[in-house]
Amino acid sequence: MKKNAYTQSAKEVNPRKSLFGMMVAHPFLICQYPFADPKRCWGQPCDECKGFCTGHYLKPDDHMECVAKYGTDECVFTPPKDQVEAAAKSKCQKNEEWTETEYNNICKTVLLSTEDVRIWIEHVGLTSERRKAGAKKAAETRARRERTMKLYKWNVQVMMTNFGVCVEDQNMGNIEWEDKRKQRCFVMWRTPDEWAALIFKWVQLNGMTDTVCTLFELRAGDDTVNEEFYGIDMWMLKKALSQLEAKGKAQMFEAPDASDESGLGVKFFS
What we know:
mainly alpha, two-stranded antiparallel sheet, rod-shaped
């Protein structure tokens, strides 16, 4: 690709003849954009080029003269890359193929070879295809997630609707509802009656009848380390002792500190 107004390096430009220099010398001129040379057009014989000539932009002196005479209407305000990219995107959006005439026309407009333009167009086409494929994949992923979420919500709704019925059907006395709507429940390994029987059996075997002990001693004391009810939750222990109270086999006492449940006492009867 030949050097033009966009690719010419700063070192190769004479400061006195640069566009910036012209603007300083002639502030009334707006000549900061390149101007295609009408005498050295795309595809015409050229003494400067070896092989096919893709056209040239006016040199600084000629550019200044041309702009002063004709104005800036013929100046190139959009870089060649952006022009090719815009044309290629338009074709992709319309899903149209490029013809040889269209290739030549865009090449003449941007003063680039057909090979250079073809590379840009292919690049834009591949990028567009990848973006379309990515957008399609993202849409499919979102749709799949939405279907999964809808199915999950539906399953949860069905489960919650039938939860109470299923639990009641399997209730063997070890389930206790936490709320009236029957959406939360306690599932107990043993029923309060079963725990009460184990505790009272230990009381009898250890001669604890007609004596008082604390609930902490029952659930975490040294004497109950090897018992099944060791470490039992406080709420379950109180339920079990309530069963013994109802049968006249125990009586619970309030703790000195109402906030300390472990200080609650219980007396067992024979």
